[in-house]
Each structure stands twice: as structure tokens, then as C-alpha cells.
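Researcher: I'd like a candidate sequence for this fold, 326 residues long. If you have to choose between options at a position, lean toward the conservative one.
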């Protein structure tokens, strides 16, 4: 399958392993991330000082307008030029700057080590890296958490290339650890609970996962996260998860045990397809209840194309056009 350079990892001639996220490719994603000019600008529930304009007015970085001086206004904000011209005291009004740290939670547990074309784990790493770069390009602080089968790491959100590079190195390291199968220490519910301790109020949070063990115990943590952050789900899946391969007998393994799978059973095929469909419906319902974004990523997708459809220039232009229509 032909894909653009924005979605292809580095060549194996460079010594790269196809099952490990490519470091140089994740670094290069910063170029495409700069084009995501419509990156989320949803008003955060908890305001922090920083780089995004809010609807609140006060002493801030950006000049907004002037109005006639009112008792109680700070005399330091008087606009003396306008006052001299109109002979009426006027004061400057500033638009406060606000910031939403971008935090990316990347699920690199054992279920992500799967794919018919590309591994879900590798695709998840690329999505996570692109989102972190996009946050930095939007002048936000960027960081995140990476969960593996047995370990986790967190990178504090900062407005620096070093923070994103540190995060990317962690993505590569944890994707490499999947080559040595281990039982999962974290369920998705535990992963979300751990994340709640790290997330700052007012953050924009992306959860990159296959959500294979999404259940009722996850919902309480998601609702708590949504109370303090702008949530977004990035659902990574492989086409073979939507439907079993053509009827035959296949050797399958979880990395430790091997067995034979007969996909000729119509009942098995239907149950398999229904399970994936049910998980997708649950995720969509949750995204609606939480006002959370939801982006599906097939492992065969060009991840930058998917992100561009959601946050690219063309998307921003169409939004502007619609808002300008009567």
C-alpha cells in the first residue's frame, strides 16, 4: 500500500525494527503537525495563565479595546492618547491569555502489539508524537504518559522541544519492550485512574488506545477526567479486528502460547464482529456524554491525513465559512 512520507516509518536499511516505533520518523512528524492550525480551541473548564485567549477580560498580554474610564479602574490602564484626543478619560481593556496544556496518554500494553499491516503500537506512537508536536506548535505546554505492560512513565508538560523529544524517546522505548511479551499490570480502568493523578485542571487530554478492555469501571474515571479536562479519544484498530479473515484454520499466538483458530464458523464470525461493533458504540456513546472528541485510526491509515481532516487548515477554513453564513 502506497502511503505518503508523513505516515511511513523509516526504512529498515537504517537498522530500524518494524515492530518498534521509529524515532527519526516521530521527530519528522513535527513538520506536518505545524499544519494542524485548527488544533482544539475549546474553552477549558479551569483557567490557567498562558497562550490562549479567553472570553474573560482583565489585565493581560493582548490589548483588546478602550472604553470610558469607570470608577475603580486601574489608573495604570488609562489610555492617555485617547484621553487627550477626546478630553474624556479612557482606559485600556486587555484580553487575558489562557493556556491548556496538551497531555497525551499513550496505551502501549500487550493488546497493542497486533496488526495485519502495521502494529497498533507503532501507529499509536506516531499519533501520540504528532499530537505532542501539534500542541507545541500551538504554543502550548506538551507532555504525557506512556503505559506499557508492566511500567509507566510520565513527562511533565512543558513548552519545549526537549519535553516532546523526551516523550518520543519513551514511546520508542515502550514499543520496543513489547517484543518481550509480559502480562499486563494495568487494566484500562487502572490506567485512567493513574492518569487522573497527573492531569492538570484545564488540560486538553488525548487518550490513544485500542480500548479493548473498556468497561463500566472505566466510565467513572472518564467522567472525573472530563470534569477537569477537554477529553479526546483516539481509537486505534486494525481491519482484522472488525472481521475475521476468510474461512480457514490459522495458527495464532499471544507470544507465549499457540493454538489453531478455525474461522469457518459463522457463529464465531458474527460474535467476533459484534464484539468490535459493541466496543465502538460504547466509545461513541461515551464521547457524546462527555462532549469528548473521537478520532478512529485504522492501522492502514495515513495518520497525518486523519489528523488533518480534524484539525487542518481546510477544516478551519470550512468552520470559518459556516460561522460567517447568516
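Model: Candidate sequence:
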Amino acid at each position: 500500500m502506497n502511503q505518503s512520507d508523513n505516515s511511513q516509518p523509516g526504512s529498515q536499511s537504517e537498522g530500524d525494527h518494524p515492530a518498534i516505533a521509529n524515532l527519526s520518523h516521530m521527530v519528522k512528524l513535527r513538520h506536518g503537525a505545524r499544519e494542524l492550525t485548527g488544533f482544539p480551541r475549546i474553552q477549558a473548564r479551569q483557567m490557567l495563565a498562558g497562550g490562549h485567549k479567553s472570553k474573560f477580560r482583565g489585565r493581560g498580554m493582548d490589548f483588546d479595546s478602550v472604553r470610558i474610564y469607570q470608577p475603580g479602574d486601574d489608573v495604570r490602564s488609562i489610555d492617555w492618547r485617547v484621553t487627550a484626543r477626546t478630553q474624556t478619560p479612557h482606559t485600556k481593556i486587555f484580553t487575558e491569555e489562557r493556556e491548556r496544556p496538551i497531555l497525551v496518554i499513550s496505551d502501549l500494553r500487550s493488546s497493542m502489539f497486533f496488526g495485519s499491516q502495521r502494529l497498533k503500537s507503532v501507529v499509536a506512537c506516531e499519533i501520540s508524537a504528532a499530537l505532542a508536536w501539534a500542541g507545541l506548535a500551538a504554543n502550548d505546554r506538551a507532555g504525557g504518559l506512556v503505559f506499557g505492560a508492566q511500567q509507566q512513565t510520565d513527562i511533565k508538560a512543558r513548552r519545549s522541544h526537549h519535553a516532546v523529544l523526551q516523550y518520543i524517546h519513551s514511546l520508542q522505548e515502550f514499543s520496543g519492550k513489547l517484543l518481550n511479551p509480559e502480562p499486563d499490570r494495568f487494566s484500562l480502568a487502572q490506567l485512567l485512574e493513574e492518569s487522573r493523578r497527573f492531569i492538570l485542571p484545564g488540560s486538553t487530554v488525548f487518550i490513544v488506545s485500542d480500548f479493548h478492555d473498556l468497561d463500566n469501571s472505566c466510565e467513572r474515571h472518564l467522567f472525573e477526567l472530563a470534569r477537569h479536562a477537554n477529553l479526546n479519544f483516539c481509537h486505534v484498530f486494525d481491519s482484522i479486528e472488525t472481521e475475521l479473515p476468510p474461512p480457514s484454520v490459522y495458527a495464532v499466538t499471544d507470544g507465549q502460547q499457540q493454538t489453531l483458530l478455525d474461522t469457518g464458523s459463522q457463529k464465531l464470525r458474527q460474535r467476533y464482529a459484534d464484539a468490535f461493533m459493541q466496543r465502538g458504540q460504547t466509545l461513541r456513546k461515551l464521547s457524546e456524554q462527555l462532549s469528548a472528541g473521537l478520532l478512529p485510526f485504522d492501522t492502514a491509515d495515513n495518520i497525518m491525513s486523519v489528523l488533518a481532516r480534524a484539525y487542518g487548515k481546510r477544516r478551519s477554513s470550512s468552520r470559518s465559512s459556516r460561522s460567517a453564513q447568516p
